[in-house]
Amino acid sequence: MKKYIMKNKKLVALGAMFFLMLWFLLYKVIDNKLLLPSPFEVFIEVKYIITEKTFIHVILGTLKRSFWSFFIALSFAIVLSVFSILNQVIYNFLIPLIELFKAIPTMTIVILALVWLNNDKAPILMGALAVFPILYEGLLKNIISTDKKIIHMLDVYNVQKIDVVRYVYIPKIFEGLGKIFSSTLGLTFKIVVGGEILAAPNNSIGSEIQLQKVYLNTTGVFAWIVIIVILTIIVDYIISSFGKFRGKKSWMKF
After folding, report:
1. Which helix (H) or strand (E) holds 32?
2. Under 8 Å CB-to-CB from 36, ≥6 apart: which residues?
3. Which residues are the signal sequence here (predicted)?
C-alpha cells in the first residue's frame, strides 16, 4: 500500500522527537501540570504504573474485553454478509439495521449498554455495536467483488451453495478481513477503553483512567494514554507481521 511505501523510519523518529519537544515547550508556556504535565513526569508515571502488581491484570482485562467485542462483531458480520450475498431479501432487510447502527451516536450506545448489561459486559457490547457495521460492509463489499464469471460458471454446473460459500466466499471474506483487520481491531480497543471509563469495571484501563481523573492526577491520565498508544502499536505490529508471514507461507493461505 502507498502509506507503507512512503513510510521512512528516520522521518517518523524525527516527527516523534518534534512532537515531544513541542509538548515540553507547551508545558513550559502553560506552567500548570494540572492542565499539562511534562513529558518527563509522564514517563516516570508510566514506569511506576507498569511496575505495579495489578498492571498485568488491568491490561489483560481490557484486552479480553476488546477480543470478545471484536469476535462477536466479526462473527455476526461474517454470517450476515454470507446470508446477504446468498439471499437478496436478507440483504435488503438488513439495510435499515446497518444504517441505524451507523447513525446512532456512540454515547447513545454507551448509555443503552450500561442500562442493559453490568459494568463488566457493557464495554463489550459498545465495541461490538460500533464496529459491526464497518466489518459487515467491508466483508460484503469484498464478497460482491468476486468475479461474476466464476459465479456464473458455478451456477451452470449446479454447484451446491454450501460449496460456493466454502470455496469462493469464505476465502474472499478472509481476504477482505486482512484489509480492515488492523483498523477495526484498533477502533474496537479504543471504544472498549472509552466504555470502561464510564462503566468502570474491575481490572480495566478505563477504570484506572477514571480513578486518575477523580484524584485530579493529569499526569496519571497522560501516562495511561501513553500506555494505550504503546499497546496499539504492539498489536498493530503483531498483526502486520502475521500478515507478512502468511504471505510467505502459501500453506497458511485461506
Report:
1. none
2. 23, 26, 27, 30, 218
3. none
Per the model's pLDDT, the better-predicted residue between 244 and 50 turns out to be: 50
Q: C-alpha 16: how far from its chain's center?
A: 23
CATH of domain 39-252: 1.10.3720.10
Q: What is the pLDDT of residues 100-119, one digit of tens each?
A: 888 887 778 778 888 888 88
CA 115, 116, 121 angle in degrees (round to 5)? 105
The residues, ordered by sequence, that sit 6+ positions from 208 with a Cβ below 8 Å of its Cβ are 49, 58, 220, 224
Spans of all domains in the chain: 39-252
Long-range contacts made by residues 165-169, C-beta under 8 angstroms, separation at least 24?
Answer: 165/82, 165/86, 169/82, 169/85, 169/143
CB 192 within 8 Å of CB 65? yes
pLDDT at 179 over 90: no
Alpha-carbon distance of 98 to 237, in angstroms, equals: 31
Q: For residue range 19-35, list pLDDT tens digits in order.
A: 889 999 999 998 888 88
Nearest-10 crossing angle of helices 88-103, 55-86: 140
Amino acid letter at 74?
A: L
Q: Are 188 and 127 in contact (CB under 8 A)?
A: yes
Helix pair 218-248, 170-199: axis angle to 10 deg: 170
State how far the alpha carbon of 195 is from the alpha carbons of 89, 121, 237, in Å: 35, 10, 25
DSSP H or E segment with residue 41: helix 39-50
Q: In whole angstroms, give the CA distance from residue 182 to residue 168.
A: 23
